[in-house]
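Sorry, any thoughts here?
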Amino acid sequence: MISTFMGLETAKRGLSTSQGALYTTGNNVANANTIGYSRQRVNLVQTSGFPTVGLNSPRVAGQIGTGVAAETVQRIRNSFLDAQYRTQSNKIGYYGAMSESLTKMEGVMNEPTDSGLAATMEKFWNSLQGLTANTENSGAREVVASTGVMVADTLNYYYNSLTNVQTDIGNQINVKANEINTLISSIDQLNQQISKVEPHGYIPNDLYDKRDVLVDNLSQLVSIKVNNVIPTDYGRASDVATGLYNIELMQEDGSSFVPPINLVSVNQTGMVGTSKVEVSHDKTTGMVDGLKFGSKTLTDFKFSESYPV
């Protein structure tokens, strides 16, 4: 009788667990084209045998297996590949923006062409040579004067056009700084939501995915290092819980600033806060001359690996 009853319970438990695994598979299929979605799997564990040890335990030949249970639903994600992706994404952001800026300047310089600075200067030197051979010739003097005006006009055009390009890049830096601050705030909010779920033993995979998408976007703008932190007093957090993200700003060579600059700061006691980006401008020219992260101002930082300050 006991073995029949336990057999039915084991079968019911197995069917229920398999149904839950099918739900997860269906969720994977439904989100196959969802940006940032990480495939999930159900981790199955063997349940405790029957009977347990005790004075009132029934006398049987040995413990009977009671089947399987779903322990956790875990994302299939590789933190090493995440770090590699963010490093390369950071470089793509830099070289892409650099290429865009150089293309704008190339359009202004317009070299080599018949109307560029080199051609204008050549005409000016030729007119001077002509004047040297005919110093009393008024026509030669007029040619020198007119080509000199052409040189001045060309230089003024270059100056004004390059200044406009510089101003445009400065405006882009302001836009990117606002974008960085928005991402930092969103990541911090997701950290807070995750910190309310994980201590209860749950795995908030959807929140993890949303946070990783934001971190990936942030890596395109600044060089960062992500550390997973699980606070000391964190309830019944699962062993596969990702924890909270501490996001550190890194230098161009991949080393830390001294002292470290944390855009999103987390330690063993929990969340500490965030450091927002502020753009500083030269009081005379109005051009960008530095970036302030929290209390630290950087004047030679390659902003977002995109626009060097």
Notes: DSSP finds five helices and eleven strands in the chain. The chain has three domains: 2-75, 79-96+175-308, 106-161. The longest strand covers residues 256-267.
